[in-house]
């Protein structure tokens, strides 16, 4: 702090005293966590509008437009089914195409949200430098955009599941809490990578590889029971891998004969809840702590 | 960050009284800048030592990149802005005008000294890009929501903002994506959005210079209204005429140092004499 004492002749106060007397605050000061959460809540309309706008803009250059919301997941499934279902002739898992689509769509939610999240600060510097709003709006909006995309995928998924002959059961309702927990988990991850990505541009280059590795360890394309020669600790890591947990929950909800690895179903839900809370709250606090840095430099 | 302290100046200095001091019946300060120093690191861009091998060597030896240089952009500026004032900031290129605005907006940290503000100042610059893939209308909605307005209020004032910006003067541009706009149109729309809200402190960086004559008239009028609405407006511009039309007080910065602070006419006269003599 400055210890200069330039006294204003009219009031006889130093600049700092003058500021204090009129309740002026240091520019760019970070609000308290409670105040920050309150402001963020006041910006919920902005978050929703921004997420929606991003979704519309993402297909604005394509001729088929919004149809890609459905075509993209379908194409994705087609490619992987060709390799793992047809070429490699996967036989272990019943109803493989539904099994594969569930894993792909759930994982894709995290993957696209993380990739969008890394750039949610660095790609919006213009907006950040021009207007003041809680910056967490941006990563949250990125998550929401992908969540809307996920809902479109879920329509496709339910069609696939029905066509492949799965019965409609009450278990399907469990998909709703499973997706919500997953969304909270994703929001936490996205806020974390948004802060990291704001500082280190290199992360954008590395992230696709991290995500690829994560995908192979999450039993998206095959069952992780194939990993038979892992040491104890690695098996535990895989078992508690949040992505595996969320994928398993979705598969359990929709598919009749889905193999569930994670001990009991209760345990699976508890792990899913723990991941959502820890990551959601942790990511939010981590992002808030960097609030005054965004847009600087 | 480099912390470098000059000879300590903790002696109490009483400024000479300025003639015709307005009888201070409690003028309310909105921005107090106290001996602010801003030093920032700039990347010089491509140059020597940017090959992958050189970058790797730097990583191993843990030396900082050679293409980063520290610029001491603002060197101890002190002033106080009051409610209802419009203040022009003038000076040659690179004199620290935009930097001081960004420090007031809280977007650049001060390395030494302090900047105190009332409420949250809004910086409106020509580079303040909104979402280029979206239509002007949607950008208006988003921008207003981002300023914290309620959706009902936004729906009510959105047509006024479009009208004010004048982007629809040559056909329906409001429904076209912003990337199709000319730079002048985009700047006008951005100004119109930012000016739609009452700001405690509004910082305008060269925004008025981009519009055409009709728009400049409207925007200068709007700046005056904002000021009368008990806000403080800072205007950075190289167009002395627009400063003369909107601001009654002007601060002249040169190489990061405050050269002069006073009534616009006097400061501009001195500045013009200075520029011509160079």
Automatic annotation (TrEMBL), chain A:
Chief location bin: membrane
Subcellular location(s) of the protein: Cell inner membrane; Cell membrane
Pfam family, one: ABC2_membrane
Statement: the UniProt record of this protein carries the keyword Transmembrane helix: yes
GO terms under cellular component: plasma membrane
Membrane topology: Multi-pass membrane protein
Keyword tags: Cell inner membrane, Cell membrane, Membrane, Transmembrane, Transmembrane helix, Transport
Start and end residues of each ABC transmembrane type-2 domain: 64-290
Membrane-crossing segments per the record: 67-84, 96-118, 138-163, 175-197, 209-227, 268-288
Molecular function terms, GO-annotated: ABC-type transporter activity
Any one Gene Ontology BP term: lipopolysaccharide transport
Similarity comment text for this entry: Belongs to the ABC-2 integral membrane protein family.
Name of the featured protein: Transport permease protein
Originating organism: Micromonospora halophytica
Automatic annotation (TrEMBL), chain B:
Domain of life where this protein originates: Bacteria
SUPFAM superfamilies linked to this entry: P-loop containing nucleoside triphosphate hydrolases
Pfam families given in the database record: ABC_tran (PF00005)
Keywords: ATP-binding, Nucleotide-binding, Transport
One GO cellular component term: membrane
GO function term, MF aspect, one: ATP binding
Keyword Electron transport appears in the UniProt entry: no
Listed InterPro entries: AAA+_ATPase, ABC_transporter-like_ATP-bd, ABC_transporter-like_CS, ABC_transpr_TagH-like, Bact_Polysacc_Export_ATP-bd, P-loop_NTPase
Domain spans labelled ABC transporter: 54-277
Database matches in PANTHER family: TEICHOIC ACIDS EXPORT ATP-BINDING PROTEIN TAGH
Family the UniProt entry places it in: Belongs to the ABC transporter superfamily.
Protein's UniProt name: Teichoic acid transport system ATP-binding protein
Organism: Micromonospora halophytica
High-level lineage: Bacteria, Bacillati, Actinomycetota, Actinomycetes, Micromonosporales
């Amino acid at each position: 702090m400055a210890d200069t004492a330039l006294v204003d002749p009219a009031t006889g106060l130093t600049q700092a005293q003058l500021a204090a007397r009129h309740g002026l605050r240091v520019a760019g000061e970070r609000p308290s966590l409670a105040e920050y959460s309150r402001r963020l809540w006041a910006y919920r309309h902005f978050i929703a509008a921004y997420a929606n706008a991003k979704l519309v803009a993402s297909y604005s250059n394509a001729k088929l437009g919004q149809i890609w919301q459905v075509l993209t997941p379908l194409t994705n499934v087609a490619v992987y089914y060709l390799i793992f279902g047809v070429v490699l002739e996967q036989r272990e898992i019943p109803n493989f195409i539904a099994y594969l689509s569930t894993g792909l769509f759930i994982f894709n939610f995290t993957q696209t949200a993380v990739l969008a999240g890394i750039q949610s600060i660095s790609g919006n510097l213009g907006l950040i430098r021009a207007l003041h709003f809680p910056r967490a709006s941006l990563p949250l909006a990125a998550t929401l955009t992908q969540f809307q995309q996920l809902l479109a995928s879920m329509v496709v998924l339910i069609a696939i599941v029905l066509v492949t002959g799965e019965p409609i059961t009450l278990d399907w309702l469990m998909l709703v809490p499973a997706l919500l927990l997953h969304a909270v988990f994703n929001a936490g991850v996205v806020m974390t990578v948004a802060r990291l990505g704001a500082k280190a541009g290199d992360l954008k280059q590395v992230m696709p590889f991290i995500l690829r590795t994560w995908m192979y360890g999450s039993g998206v394309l095959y069952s992780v029971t194939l990993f038979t020669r892992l040491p104890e600790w690695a098996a535990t890591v895989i078992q508690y891998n949040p992505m595996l947990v969320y994928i398993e929950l979705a598969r359990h909800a929709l598919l009749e004969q889905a193999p569930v690895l994670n001990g009991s179903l209760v345990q699976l839900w508890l792990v899913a809840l723990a991941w959502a809370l820890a990551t959601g709250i942790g990511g939010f606090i981590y992002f808030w702590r960097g609030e005054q840095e965004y847009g600087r430099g | 960050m480099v912390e470098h302290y000059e000879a300590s100046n903790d002696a109490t200095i009483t400024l000479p009284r300025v003639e015709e001091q307005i009888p201070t019946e409690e003028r309310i300060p909105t921005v107090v800048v106290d001996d602010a120093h801003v030093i920032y690191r700039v990347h010089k861009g491509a140059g020597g030592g940017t090959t992958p091998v050189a970058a790797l060597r730097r990583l191993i030896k843990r030396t900082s990149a050679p293409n980063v240089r520290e610029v001491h952009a603002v060197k101890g500026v002190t002033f106080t802005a009051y409610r209802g004032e419009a203040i022009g900031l003038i000076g040659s290129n690179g004199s620290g005008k935009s930097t001081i605005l960004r420090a007031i907006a809280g977007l650049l940290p001060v390395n030494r000294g302090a900047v105190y503000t009332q409420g949250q100042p809004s910086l409106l610059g020509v580079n303040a890009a909104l979402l280029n893939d979206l239509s002007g209308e949607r950008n208006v909605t988003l921008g207003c929501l981002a300023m914290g307005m309620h959706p009902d209020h936004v729906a009510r004032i959105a047509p006024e903002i479009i009208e004010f910006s004048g982007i629809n003067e040559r056909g329906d541009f409001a429904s076209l994506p912003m990337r199709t706009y000319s730079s002048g149109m985009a700047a006008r729309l951005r100004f119109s959005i930012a000016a739609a809200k009452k700001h405690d402190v509004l910082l305008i960086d060269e925004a008025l210079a981009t519009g055409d004559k009709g728009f400049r008239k409207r925007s200068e009028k709007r700046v005056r209204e904002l000021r009368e609405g008990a806000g403080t407006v800072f205007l950075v511009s190289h167009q002395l005429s627009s400063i003369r039309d909107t601001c009654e007080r002007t601060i002249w910065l040169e190489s990061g140092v405050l050269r002069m602070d006073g009534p616009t006419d006097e400061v501009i006269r001195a500045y013009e004499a200075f520029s011509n003599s160079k």
